[in-house]
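Quick start: load a record and inspect it. Here is Phosphoribosylformylglycinamidine synthase subunit PurS:
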Amino acid sequence: MPRVVVNVMPKPEILDPQGKAVTGALQRLGFQGLSVRQGKRFEVEVDGDVTPEVLAQIERAAETLFANTVIESYDVVTN
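Running the structure step on this input writes:
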């Protein structure tokens, strides 16, 4: 069954407290020079082929449900 991935991340100008907490923990554990931003990943399984119509439907789902587009951006990745 084909799968399409939607990655959702906070926009660069939006504070990311979870990412900052992970970055701080990494530094305390000795990992230097790393900075983390935390997001979400949605895996959408598709019945049949991944057609342009199916991708448009997934884009609409990402726009209306997966991401808050005021503070988050998203990208749709096909395999």
